[in-house]
Each structure stands twice: as C-alpha cells, then as structure tokens.
Amino acid sequence: MKAHTKETQASITPKGAVALLKEGNERFQKKMHADRDLLEQVADTKSGQFPFATILSCIDSRVSSELIFDQGIGDIFSARVAGNFVNEDILGSMEFACKLAGTKLVLVLGHTACGAVKGACDDAKLGNLTALISKIKPAVEAVTEPSDPSSRNSKNIDFVNEVAVKNVHMTIDNIRKDSEVLREMEDNNEILILGGMYDISNGKVTFFES
C-alpha cells in the first residue's frame, strides 16, 4: 500500500474518509493488516504529505489511531490530549490539517474506561492535571443519571463511559462553536466532523451518526 498523493487525497470524499477508517478498524480487529512498507512510505512522503483524516484522541497508550485504524505514514493527522477535548492550539492544528493540508474528516475519538474522564468524575486534583480535568467536568454535569452522588464516580464504569460519550459530543459542539473555519468547511460539505468511541476490550470503534 502506497502513501497517499495529492491526487488520491483529492479523490476521497468526507464520507469516503469515514469508510477508509471503518475498513481499517475492521482489518485491525480481524488481524488482517494492510500490506505496507513503512520505510517506503517514509520515502514517498519526504517531499510532502496528503493525509485524508484528522483524528483527535486521548493520550491513552491503548488508543493509537494509526494502529486501531490500520493506517500508515502520511495517512492521518493525529492530535492527542488526555480526555480528547479541544483548546485553541488543537483547533488551530485542525484548521491547518483541513483547510491547508486537505483532510476530509475530523474524528473526535473517545474510549471506554478513560482515565481522564474517571478523574473528572472523581474531581481529582493534581498539579496541572486539575486544570485539564476541568475541561471534562461539563460532560460529567451533563450526564444526569444516576442522580445518587454515590454512583457518580469512577467506580461506576457505566457512568464513566456515558460521560466519555457525552464528552465527545460536547467536544464536537465546541469545534463548531469555536472554529469558524471548520464550521464553514462542514457547511460547504468539504469536511465531516464526526464522533466515535473505541472499546478497549475488543478493539472496535463505534462511529456516531453525524
């Protein structure tokens, strides 16, 4: 499998980009990885890159976008921060990736049993982590059930995972609210902004409906 070129990138539609990631995740789950020479792709991309998707995911060591979507060198832009939320820097990176570098999809990818989400559920405090967790707390507050405070913590994994899903949706809302560039591109059908969840127990990505 060769690295993408300007021509192959241009031929991919936003929905086509989603399909490529879905196909890659299926290969990952079935241990049927695409036949690619990564060093050959290094050579292919030395004079330029033409990725088809931008993925915002958590720093969790189990959630490498390149691996779980079976992608190679030059295929995707990968932005990572604990809790997969956006700030000015990540939005700027996404705007570069889509408007200037030509990617067709922004995927916000949460995952089950997320440690950052657990920290937000538990109101953890530790150095700079305190400020990071504050970015996720709105998602905790937005999940209203269960209402019993004793069940709204990291010991309740169903609650944690519901908060993780809500955090993905709220991150997408923030992308559209805070990035005029990406919002206009989506309105013009140049890109899709989509969410998904990765299950750390089986390797499956569930894509949300746009």
What would you note in describing this structure?
By secondary structure, the protein is of the alpha/beta class. The chain has a 5-stranded mixed sheet, sandwiched between helices. The model has no long low-confidence stretch (mean pLDDT 97). The protein has helices at 6-11, 14-30, 38-44, 65-68, 88-100, 115-121, 129-134, 137-142, 157-178, 180-187, and strands spanning 53-57, 76-80, 105-111, 192-198, 205-207. It contains 10 helices and 5 strands, in the order αααβαβαβαααααββ. One of its GO terms (molecular function) is zinc ion binding. Zn(2+) binds at residues 58, 60, 111, 114. Belongs to the beta-class carbonic anhydrase family.
Keywords:
metal-binding; alpha/beta; zinc ion binding; zinc; 210 residues; single chain; Carbonic_anhydrase_sf
Please give the number of β-strands. 5
Ranges with pLDDT <50 over ≥5 residues? Answer: none
Average of the residue pLDDT scores:
97
Estimated share of beta-strand residues: 5-15%
Biggest sheet statistics: 5 strands, mixed
Order of helices and strands: HHHEHEHEHHHHHEE
